[in-house]
Design a protein that fits this description.
Layout: H1 2-7, E1 15-20, H2 25-29, H3 32-36, E2 41-44, H4 56-65, H5 74-95, E3 106-110, E4 113-115, H6 117-125, E5 135-136, E6 140-142, H7 150-154, H8 156-161, E7 167-170, E8 177-179, E9 184-186, H9 189-200, H10 208-217, E10 223-226, E11 230-232, H11 234-237
Parallel strand pairs: 1-2, 1-3, 5-10
Antiparallel strand pairs: 3-9, 4-11, 5-9, 6-8, 7-10
Length: 256
């Protein structure tokens, strides 16, 4: 396994952006050697509770149009606006690369996720036939209707058995939805452009993964790779803003 790590290059891989807060050095450590080899790029995250100058105007715009639960604390609202600004920041950066868009597409992940490179390389071999949509490389499965649907969660293993393994699957919004920013992939500039236009045209906006669920329902986001290529490292996830939601039993590789 060590030999494989040494020989890992970015040949055939997408451009990979990892969203990371400057203060989260520990989370960044696991990517240091990949970064040195040019396999991943770091995208500076926006700190919601105290946005950096370069993010300030975008943050204020997102905070003003953010729709969040009526009882969310001011801190929670700022953190959510910060996450939204971080993700939109990297998507806007990719959008500016129209004339030199990476030929293998772009993967965006958060710094508490880890990448299965063997799975990624395999996926890239036949990804071209799925170039009409954003593709989830990781995330969490949830009921199509409400988080309170306990019966649905009880049957999640049955649902998982219906997915084809080590390949791309079609999202069925009548049966499930996928949430989380653990890994989403843009196959080409056109898909980035369509996504930006949809998001920018909105007067009000929810957290980005919730906005992406709406696009799943409309059939605009169509695919996910199973099992996940990029999935949460539980220990790192526990340190994040949604840390309370994670426990050892979660099988993030299987969109758990």
């Amino acid at each position: 396994n060590k030999t494989k790590k040494k020989t890992l290059t970015n040949k055939g891989l997408p451009k990979i952006y990892i969203i990371n807060l400057k203060k989260d050095k520990q989370k960044w450590n696991k990517y240091k050697s990949d970064h040195k080899k040019g396999i991943v790029s770091r995208q500076s995250a926006c700190l919601g509770i105290d946005p950096q100058t370069k993010y300030l105007s975008q943050f204020k715009k997102n905070e003003d149009r953010l729709q969040i639960m009526w009882n969310a604390s001011p801190k929670k609202k700022k953190c959510t606006a910060g996450i939204l600004t971080s993700h939109l920041g990297v998507v806007q950066k990719i959008h500016k690369q129209k004339n030199n868009f990476p030929k293998n597409g772009v993967l965006v992940i958060e710094d508490d996720a880890i990448i299965n490179y063997i799975r990624l390389k395999k996926a890239m071999k036949n990804i071209k036939q799925f170039n009409d949509s954003i593709i989830y490389f990781g995330g969490t499965l949830h009921p199509p209707d409400t988080f309170k649907n306990k019966k649905w969660y009880d049957n999640i293993d049955h649902l998982r058995k219906t997915f084809k393994k080590e390949t791309f699957n079609k999202i069925d919004p009548k049966k499930f939805r996928i949430l989380g920013g653990h890994g989403y992939y843009f196959p080409n500039w056109k898909i980035v452009d369509e996504f930006i236009q949809l998001i920018e045209s909105k007067k009000k906006i929810r957290a980005l993964d919730s906005e992406m669920v709406k696009l799943q329902k409309k059939g605009i986001i169509k695919y996910f790779y199973y099992p996940a290529i990029s999935f949460l490292d539980i220990d790192d996830a526990k340190k994040g803003v949604h840390g309370g939601y994670f426990d050892e039993g979660r099988t993030m590789e299987y969109y758990g």
